[in-house]
């Protein structure tokens, strides 16, 4: 059997093993990410305890000296393995399209260590992006253990990413939606079935360790009347503008500092660690990804000026930490920034526009979804994520309205998704992995926006390295003869080399001219 036959054979058998493999990845990924969460929590609690007991000048000096040393060590880790920098989600995307080399065990080990140091020290970074990369590394490792072909390996890699998010947030549905919306950017039945099984299994493992309670305890969120929809739309517009500014600053920091070759890689995290020390002494409630900040906001009682100050400091603190390329994500910081915005607008609406002052939790919850959906351009994930994290689907309509409004504002300003922009800038700045790779089979759906819709197969100007081998169309499958017209809802089964993944997805999704 040659490579092509093995790829096709694996594709035909894959669906029979998808549930079994998803369960294995869910168990292993759930355990690894749960261990990561446990150690992070212990490290962060210890750091907060230390910061809270510093009251002498010489103790302050020692604290900053230790932070500088930790920054240098993290810089050394990032220099040793650049794939662990930042959240890790752009790197997962890059590996998925065959543009980046992913050494699974090296990435898993160094990301684990680097994330504990950074997040445990109190930097304004989240565990969720690293958890996605750690989960993806686990999935890739399991695929290598089973000696899977490239076709199967790509799915298992994706399932691992879903398990990471599910275990990090106790959100299995959001996990699978995220990998479809952000990584694959399309619906695929294999990804959905395998991702769901993996996410549910990883979530069960995490719940066994951390309990059944949702990540955030909002209590009974007051249902606001539909007559208050104008408040929701105003908040959505503000969240969209904030998301545009956030994304532009992320890219600016990445270009001007994170990938600036004139600054030695080993020194880049140091300023962020120093800023973390300053925040620890001045405003300790802003340390970490923002879980403690959100819990503080839920308690209520903060004035409008205080909320505005918290928003500005948290916003800029996150930018400084993320620009340093330290191993850590922006999932939870995004949610905390959205929560502060929601709390501030709730107080503003209650004071000046007659809104119900008891609606603080409501505006916080929907603002978290809106800001996340606008920054990542993954609105469905944002909506489901907040529903799962709060344990309530009662505000689904308002979550949808605020998230779609924020999303549309970013569209008006032509602001792209933050992870996709980071990947694009990474590939342009560095030297992407260009190995030809092995043959593999992928499936690409034909959607209304696709440039190949209503075209005959013979009109497709495909390079020789891409072979359209089948068209899946209900109720069965058809051979791609030259006169076959591609329709909306078709699924194209394509045989290609790993290096051609990005080309194929851009070609069939309308981003590359025919």
Known CATH architecture of the largest domain: Orthogonal Bundle
Broad CATH class of the largest domain: Mainly Alpha
- How many alpha or pi helices? 18
Low-pLDDT segments, ≥5 res: 1-12
Give the mean pLDDT.
85
Gross morphology is globular
Strand order in the sheet with the most strands: 1-4-2-3
Give the H and E element order.
HHHHHHHHHHHHHHHHHEEEEH
Structure in a nutshell:
The chain has 18 helices and four strands. With 514 residues, it is mainly alpha-helical.
Description:
The chain is mostly helical and 514 residues long. It folds into three domains: 208 residues, Orthogonal Bundle (Clc chloride channel); 201 residues, Clc chloride channel (Orthogonal Bundle); 74 residues, 2-Layer Sandwich (Alpha-Beta Plaits), CATH 3.30.70. The chain has a four-stranded antiparallel beta sheet, sandwiched between helices. A hairpin with a 2-residue loop joins β2 and β3. α7 crosses α8. The chain is globular, with a radius of gyration of 23 Å. The N terminus is likely disordered.
């Amino acid at each position: 059997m040659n490579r092509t036959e093995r790829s096709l054979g694996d594709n035909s058998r894959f669906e029979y093993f998808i549930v079994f493999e998803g369960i294995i990845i869910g168990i292993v990924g759930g355990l690894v990410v749960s261990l990561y969460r446990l150690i992070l929590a212990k490290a962060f609690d210890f750091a907060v305890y230390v910061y809270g007991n510093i009251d002498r000048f010489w103790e302050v000096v020692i604290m900053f000296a230790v932070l500088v040393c930790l920054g240098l060590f993290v810089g050394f880790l990032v220099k040793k393995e650049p794939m662990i920098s930042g959240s890790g989600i752009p790197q997962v995307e890059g590996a998925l399209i065959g543009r980046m080399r992913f050494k699974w065990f090296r990435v898993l080990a160094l990301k684990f260590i680097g994330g504990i140091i950074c997040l445990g020290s109190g930097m304004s970074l989240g565990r969720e992006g690293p958890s996605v990369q750690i989960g993806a590394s686990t999935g890739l490792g399991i695929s290598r253990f089973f000696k899977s072909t490239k076709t199967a390996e790509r799915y298992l890699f994706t399932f691992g990413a879903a398990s990471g998010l599910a275990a990090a947030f106790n959100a299995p549905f959001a996990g699978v939606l995220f990998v479809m919306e952000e990584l694959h950017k399309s619906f695929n039945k294999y990804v959905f079935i395998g991702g769901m099984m993996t996410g549910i299994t990883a979530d069960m493992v995490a719940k066994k360790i951390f309990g059944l309670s949702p990540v955030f305890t909002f209590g009974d969120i007051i249902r606001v009347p539909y007559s208050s929809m104008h408040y929701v739309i105003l908040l959505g517009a503000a969240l969209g503008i904030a998301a545009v500014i956030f994304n532009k600053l992320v890219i600016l920091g990445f270009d001007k500092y994170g990938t600036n070759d004139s600054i030695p890689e080993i020194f880049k995290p140091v300023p962020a660690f120093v800023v973390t020390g300053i925040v620890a002494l001045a405003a300790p409630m802003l340390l970490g990804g923002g879980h403690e900040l959100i819990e503080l906001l839920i308690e209520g009682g903060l004035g409008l000026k205080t909320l505005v100050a918290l928003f500005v400091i948290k916003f800029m603190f996150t930018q400084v930490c993320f620009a340093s390329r330290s191993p850590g994500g922006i999932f939870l910081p995004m949610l905390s920034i959205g929560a502060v915005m929601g709390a501030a607008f709730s107080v503003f609406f209650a004071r000046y526009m007659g809104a119900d002052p008891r609606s603080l939790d409501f505006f916080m919850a929907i603002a978290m979804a809106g800001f996340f959906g606008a920054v990542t351009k993954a609105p469905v994930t944002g909506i489901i994520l907040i529903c799962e994290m709060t344990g309530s689907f009662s505000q689904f309509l308002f979550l949808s309205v605020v998230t779609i409004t924020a999303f549309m504002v970013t569209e008006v300003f032509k602001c792209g998704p933050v992870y996709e922009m980071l990947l694009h800038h990474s590939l342009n700045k560095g030297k992407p992995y260009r190995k030809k790779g092995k043959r593999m089979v992928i499936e690409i759906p034909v959607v209304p926006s696709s440039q190949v819709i209503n075209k005959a197969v013979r009109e497709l100007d495909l390079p020789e390295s891409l072979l359209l081998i089948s068209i899946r169309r209900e109720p069965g499958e058809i051979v791609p003869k030259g006169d076959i017209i591609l329709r909306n809802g078709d699924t194209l089964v394509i045989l290609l080399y790993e290096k051609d993944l990005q080309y194929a997805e851009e070609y069939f999704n309308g981003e590359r001219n025919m």
